[in-house]
Amino acid sequence: MRTLGTVGEFTYIEDGYWMGTIDKNGKIHISPDLHYRTIGDFVDGVAIASQKIGNNVNLMSGLIDTEGNHISEFKYNFVEEWGEGYYKCEIGSKKNILRRDGTEVLKVWFNDVYKVKQGLFVIGNTIRKTKDHPTLYPRGLASVNGDILFPPMFNRLRWHDEVLLDFFYAEKDGKPYLIDKSGFIVDPAGDHLPKPLDGSDNFMWDGPKNTICDGCVFTDGINSRGEGCRKLQKEEFRNNVMKGVCDYRKTNEHKLSRKEERDKYDEKKAKDKASKVSDVYATSLVKDFIKDKLDGDIMKLTSFDFNELQGDEKYGNSGGFAFSPEKTSILKAIMTLTFTDAWPALTYDGFDHLDYEVAPVNTYLMLLGFPLGDNFKALREFRPSVDLLDRAWAFYRLCHTVGNYVVWPGGFSFCRDKLRRSQRYIDTYLQAIHFAFINPRKGNIDMLQVINKKKKAFDKYRSDEGFTEMCRKLMLGDYLDYMGKPMSLFYGVWSDQKDLTREDYFKAIEQYFDFCEEEIVKRSKLIAKRLMDALSMDSPIAEPEEVLTLQLPEKYEPLRSLPDDPEGALSYSKENRNALCFVQSYPIKEKETMPMNDTKAIIDGIHDSLGDNQGLIEVSQGMTRYGKQYVFSIVKSGREPSGMNYILTMHFVKKGKALCLKGEFEERGTTGVRDTTVYEYARRQELVKGIDLEGWMKDPYDENYTRGIRMNLSEKREYDHSFPYHPLSELRRFIDYIIDNN
Predict the structure, then answer these.
(1) Is 104 exposed, middle or buried (0-12, 13-18, 19+ CB in 10 A)?
(2) Which of 193, 293, 568, 630 is the most exposed place for a label (fewest CB within 10 A)?
(3) Are 546 and 657 in contact (CB under 8 A)?
């Protein structure tokens, strides 16, 4: 559970998808088990709430008391406060008014009901257009006692003065009427009187005094017959005088009229929307945030606690929702720029329209519970040590940093809350997503509904390869195995699980913290780097002028320099049961690099120099994510008495600086397993034929090249996932990381 904020005497809590309330003493008044998705502010013991009722897919709304008891029926699609202690309720396109005791005011439902003021409210219907008439919106008048004073019959109906609330102004067929609060109607235009003999109309104009024109700057254009002013023509002018309202009224030439203010507002609204659709707004907000909150250093983003933005109107605005980091304007802006290539048409405006949503990757709630004083509700029941409690608070803060957030299509994170508790951890949640992608008729029904509803977002990912691509783009690749399938990483227990022992509970916490602490920090750094790219910013950690630097995968351990190493060399190693990996980087001169844009020259040069026990695997060139031009070659070399060594040569150039990266990825342990396994598969598939092994070995760039030990079928990239510990698989993963993170 987590807290959502305090209103009055209650603190709102959330357990997964469902809300509840507790008081200052920790007593639960409304349990999340009642399945209320939203609970509004209580006013004199009454609040609007939405709840899952039975097997209904959609949430239903109604009124509740402070203990969660129903006051009204929960059959409404929507309920909101509507003035003077009354509530508007909706069922489909029809609307009504609710009293505080839950009873409905009107026996007949209408398409529109307006706010209650002085016990009265305007009602209306919508009559769709036909060949004979356009769409019509007739209006009428009703009372909170249930009486309909006038059925929908007027073209227009509203209070004459929204402040005084003295009487109603109405129009029917272009004629004005006045209605007092008792329902008495008068005809101020006097159209029932005969026309004067001189042919003039019945509009009497004695000057602007005591009219809406009094004090207006445009009165100097009104003649004695009231046939218009300096701004309006006759008909609109006279209608405004009759109504007592004029949007063009100005008492000062330098002051905006209501019409001008509205036009200015509409223009600003259109401009804001355009900026949010084009990422101009997101870019501007993130740049301001870096300046205001990070002292201009974007790398400080990696440790910034977004929970600290509560109450910050600019960056912590949650768009009308209770404050939570994932709802804040700044996190939506950051996610927009970071994951723009993951989802189609991902813009800040898409978050505002609930097309997309920001969601946490990992959560402290399942194991720790929500914060309560200086402890956590669940953790305190197991009597943690001081060190563990300190670690729990550090993890709580870490969960509110940028590396713990991701973007899903709108409504998708809701599916996580609908799964069994053990499936709400990110590893099992990804398993549920993968299963739904591959088994479109057997996956979780709520998840499948959202996937089908958001076809444009999900369609390209609904396969094994697509799922892997989605996770990579969302920086969730560390939750997948070498074949791109979601792994089981956590015990999957929850704090109030029956028969959960203290030992198992602490073991689950330690396992969860060990993985997530490293993973969240790693994702934070990657997000910061993607933002730098999106904002065209240089890293605040400047590279030395004489050399380039590289970020290597974290599992490569640094080695001590040796006397024979090149000047400025940095060496690293990694090993597994089948591979010993060694890499070394050092600065070189730009003229010493391989040709950056001529791979054919490199291939020809390697072919000329290969020995009898060597073969060419790959030559490639391109640009890293952050603008370093690169070229690399992979050559294999046979070892005695058995095994293979794969040699990487990779050069980088940026802004006149160059760097060489050398690598040796040596086969160890039982050798030849990959070759033997793939050969047998290829033989059965008749990809290899005859005693001369036709089809088994071939140079990747020249079919006529026959020297040395040419590349064989097993060394193709497509077999890497089946042999994750093979040195060639390790080498290619290393290259992919270098290109994607530098």
Answers:
(1) middle
(2) 193
(3) yes
Residues 6+ apart with CB under 8 A from 134: none
Q: In this structure, how many other beta carbons lie within 10 angstroms of the beta carbon of residue 93?
A: 11
Q: Locate 22 and state its tokens.
A: 């507790």
Residue 633 host element (H or E) = strand 629-638
Q: In sequence order, which residues have a C-beta less than 8 Å from that of residue 43 and are 6 or more positions away?
A: 81, 85
Cα 714 versus chain centre, distance: 41
> 631 or 441: whose pLDDT is higher?
631
Contact 569, 561 (CB under 8 A): yes
The whole-angstrom separation of Cα 162 and Cα 83 is 14
Instruction: State how far the Cα of 333 lies from the Cα of 283, in Å rounded to an integer.
Output: 7
- What would the two tokens of residue 621 be? 């060139």
Alpha-carbon distance of 38 to 685, in angstroms, equals 59
Of the candidate ranges 237-241, 294-298, 474-478, 543-547, the one whose mean pLDDT is the lowest: 543-547
- Under the banding of pLDDT at 50, 70 and 90, the label for residue 482 is low
Residue 312 CA to residue 209 CA, distance in Å, equals 48
Helix residue spans in 385-444 (DSSP H): 386-398, 412-418, 426-438
Find out whether 115 and 121 touch, Cβ atoms under 8 Å: yes
Mean pLDDT of the chain: 88
Both ends of the chain: CA-CA distance in Å? 39
Mean pLDDT of 428-454: 89
**Could you tell me the pTM of the whole model?**
0.47
Comparing CA positions, the residue from 82, 84, 148 lying closest to residue 110 is 148
Q: Identify the pLDDT of residue 257.
A: 92
Rounded Cα–Cα distance for residues 150 and 121 (Å): 11
User: What share of the chain has pLDDT > 70, as a percent?
Assistant: 96
Which pLDDT band holds residue 538 (cuts at 50, 70, 90)?
low
CB 634 within 8 A of CB 648: yes
What type of residue is 159? W
Give percent above pLDDT 90 in the chain.
51
How far is residue 165 CA from its own chain's centroid?
44
Q: What is the pLDDT of residue 544?
A: 42
Task: Assess whether the previous peptide bond of 727 is cis (omega < 30° from 0).
Answer: no
Locate 642 and state its tokens: 């058995």
Structure tokens at 605: 């040069």
User: Is residue 587 reached through a cis peptide bond, with omega within 30 degrees of 0 on the bond before it?
Assistant: no
Q: Alpha-carbon distance 547 to 589, whole Å?
A: 9
Q: Count of residues for the chain? A: 742
The whole-angstrom distance between residue 124's C-alpha and the CA centroid of its chain comes to 38
The encoded tokens of residue 684 equal 């059965």
CA dist list (Å): 152 to 111, 121, 172, 368, 655: 10, 12, 11, 57, 74
Distance CA 99, CA 79 (A): 12
- Confidence (pLDDT) at 53: 80
CA distance 503 to 311: 40
Long-range contacts formed by 19-28: CB under 8 A, 24+ apart: 20/68, 21/66, 26/372
Separation CA 738–CA 727 (nearest Å): 16
Confidence of residue 57 (pLDDT cuts 50, 70, 90): low
What is the Cα–Cα distance from 564 to 723, expressed in whole angstroms?
A: 34
Higher pLDDT, 221 or 63: 63
- Maximum distance among all Cα pairs of the chain, rounded to whole angstroms: 124
Predicted confidence (pLDDT) per residue in 114-124, tens digit: 999 999 999 99
